[in-house]
Every structure is written in C-alpha cells, then in structure tokens.
Amino acid sequence: QVQLVESGGGLVQAGGSLRLSCAASGSSTSSVLMGWYRGKQRELVAVITTSESTNYIDSVKGRFTISRGTAKNTVYLQMNNLKPEDTAVYYCHSKAVDGTDYWGKGTLVTVSL
User: Fold this and answer.
1) 9 φ, ψ to 5°?
2) For 15-32, how does the pLDDT look when each residue is reduced to its tens digit (9 = 90+)?
3) For 9-18, what is the mean pLDDT?
4) How far apart (Å, rounded) are the C-alpha atoms in residues 88 and 78?
C-alpha cells in the first residue's frame, strides 16, 4: 500500500501563487508516474514520469509547473497566476509499477477575485 498526503492548498487572490506538495509513503513508493488532478471529475492537471517527462492541460500551460523531489517519492505543483477557475480540490495521484492507482485525499485551492 502507498499513502499519498497532499499539502499546500489554501485561499489566494487571483494572480497569486501556491505550491502544492505530495509525499508518498508506504510499503513501496516506486511509481511510473505521478500527477495532479482536480475537481469531482478528477480532471487531469499535470503529470510527470520517472524520466521527468511532463504533460499539462492547456488551461494551465505556462502557469503551472510539476516537478519531483530528489527522493522521487514527492511531487510538487507550482501554481502561478492563479485564476478563479482554478478553484478546486486538487488530488495527488501515483501509478505504481504494477499498475495500481493511488490517490491522496485532496487539498482545497480557492482563488478569489
């Protein structure tokens, strides 16, 4: 089992920045990719593979940056120039080598006008 714990959410004014963090722990933290999703529909926001390849949805390109920690069991999402439409619960996701999907409980990001 892998546990994912997110942090860094909060309330920020439009144009502001937040940095989300996700720490993985458990019996095995090896993953083929990690990413961030948001909202009830779990919309993909950004993913990063073990080879540091990244992908973003169009609406956040140029504003958000996903990265992995040196220990490779952490993933970050730097969010700049936040907009009210970015308001959502953000979930950390990890796909294990065996294909199992793991999810964090989410962290709320609220962007006010």
Assistant:
1) -70, 170
2) 999 999 999 988 655 788
3) 98
4) 15
Written as one letter, the residue type at 2 is V
Q: Which residue has the tokens 């990265």?
A: 67
* Residue 34, helix vs strand vs coil: strand
Kindly state the helix (H) or strand (E) to which residue 77 belongs, with its residue range. strand 74-79
Instruction: Give the residue from 10, 4, 45 showing the smallest Cα distance to 26.
Output: 4
Nearest to 39 by CA among 82, 91, 110: 91
- DSSP secondary structure string, 36-72? EEETTTTEEEEEEETT--EEE-GGGTTTEEEEE-TTS
Beta-bridge partner residues of 20: 77
Predicted confidence at residue 27, as pLDDT, reads 62
98 neighbors 27 (Cβ within 8 angstroms): no
